[in-house]
Amino acid sequence: MTSTARTSYTSIPNQKYRRSNRRSRQRCNSLDSDSQSLSALGYFKMLPLEIFQMVLNYLSVKDISMLSMVSKTIGNRLINYISTPSGNRRLLLQDFHNLELPSKREGSYILEHYKSLGLLLKRCTLLSPTKDRLKYIHKVLSEVSCFKLNGCPSPLHCLGLQCYGVFLQILTAGWDELECHRVFNFLCELSNLPRKVQTVVSSKPGSARKLELRIRLYCRSVLLNHWIHRSDSAFWLTRILKPWPMVNQARLLYIIFGPVSSLDGHVVWQKMIEGPTDETSLKGLADAIKLLYDTEAREWTADDVISLVDELSVVPREWLMENNARLLILSGNSICFTFMASKAVNGRTLELARLMVFLALVCEKDLYCMDWAVKMMQKVCKVFSTPGERNNFLQCVENVFAHMIMDMLQAVLSGDRDEEDSSFLNLFHLVNAQANFHKEILYLTMRGNSSTV
Question: What is d(CA 151, CA 209) in angstroms, rounded to the nearest whole number?
């Protein structure tokens, strides 16, 4: 009993001792945590916060970005600094319009600044969820009016959207697709981009010229222009286009990449309808089509892209066939052949023959090798399932050449000539195109015959 009592007596203090020990450990852990927080500041722990922020004013943005990687504690202090009035003045440069100053190299200095700022905020918010990172960054940048779709009164002479674009490119580099989807949705919510796109694609072309221009500048400068890898460019262009029906995709593609006036930057809707255009007017559209046709654009099939090209050729009305042919040449061999093969398979032989003649005409005008056009016709001929269909196509090509020459000759003889005498010049190019086209066919035939002898 004595022994039992003694055992019972000694067990109680042991339990109390354990609870007391736990409390003391908690106090020690709290002290350790505070000391670790202070030690994470290094020598900066000796400085008051105001002096620490004064020191930051002597560091470049790149140096501050490197400093943010030292510890989470310093990163938090830098986040607080960025949100202060002095940090805002220091980091959020808004000299977007003084592009004529020679010392500023046409704005390159401010673009580099926002690249560095993007890296700084990327590192400071590294441990936060994507949603919180975007909210914080929006809070920091929300006062910069030139970063908004309708924010700048002179968007053509402003680097604001380009700075916003390079900032976002650095910030989101290396993020996975799910995070980038969230970024796009966040930007759409801030800019109200979907509603504005709905307005321009459902209105008469040119009726909302200022809004068309702002959508073009926002999409190109913020979302598309600054990516190094084609897969990234394809991802963002897909995000812009895919929510819309095909006919609206074509309209939107023309708004973003189509020709614009050199005077006011507005989209020129009649360019492809009124007369032959040059490569410069079509290059943006051709590059976008190639980007979507690329294997990196996983959400697009070949049929999708060909349908988009078909819809594009009637925006806002049916293009001149020469402009359509020039776009196909600039889009590359694969797209050109797939587009023509689609017409062959669907029995649109006369359209295909006219397109073939205009491909030859563009090769003549733009000094491309005519044997390219002949080889393209050879490939298309193999698509036809029977010799009769192939022979009908070849006959149509010759008929189109003949009819076009007669029509142009009639225009020349009628005397209806403009200042540039374009009727005679068009006839000259077409006759030369036909001659060089048939010359390449003869060369090809003779080489084939000599190899069989």
Answer: 16
User: In the beta sheet, which residues pair with residue 260?
Assistant: 267
Longest dimension (CA), the chain: 136
Residue range 16-62, pLDDT digits in tens? 444 444 444 444 444 444 444 455 666 666 677 778 778 888 888 99
pTM recorded for the entire structure: 0.85
Question: Closest Cα partner for 183 from 166, 199, 171, 195?
Answer: 171
Residues 6+ apart with CB under 8 A from 380: 337, 340, 341, 344, 352, 356, 393
Q: For residues 419 and 416, what is the distance between their CA atoms, to the nearest angstrom?
A: 10
Could you tell me the pLDDT band of residue 224, with boundaries at 50, 70 and 90?
very high
Residue 280 confidence (pLDDT): 94
CA distance linking residue 205 with residue 412, whole number of Å: 34
Peptide bond into 316 cis (omega under 30): yes
Nearest to 222 by CA among 131, 147, 305: 147
DSSP state of 43: G
CB burial of residue 220 (10 Å; 0-12, 13-18, 19+): middle
Q: Which of 399, 407, 410 is nearest to 434 (CA)?
A: 399
Quote the CA–CA distance of 19 and 279 in Å, as a whole number: 83
Residue linked to tokens 């399932």: 385
As a whole number of angstroms, the distance between CA 200 and CA 240 comes to: 14
Distance of CA 297 to the CA centre of its chain: 12
C-alpha 437/C-alpha 374 separation (Å) is: 7
pLDDT in tens, 365-384: 999 999 999 999 999 999 99
Sign of CA dihedral 252, 295, 286, 259: positive
Cβ-in-10-Å burial (0-12, 13-18, 19+) of 355 comes to buried
Q: Quote the DSSP letter at residue 318.
A: P
Give CA 94 to chain center in angstroms: 24
Q: Hey, CA dihedral for 60, 66, 70, 76, is it positive or negative?
A: positive
Rounded distance between C-alpha atoms, residue 75 and residue 92, angstroms: 18
Cβ atoms of 66 and 60 closer than 8 Å: no
Q: Which residue has the tokens 């500041």?
A: 41
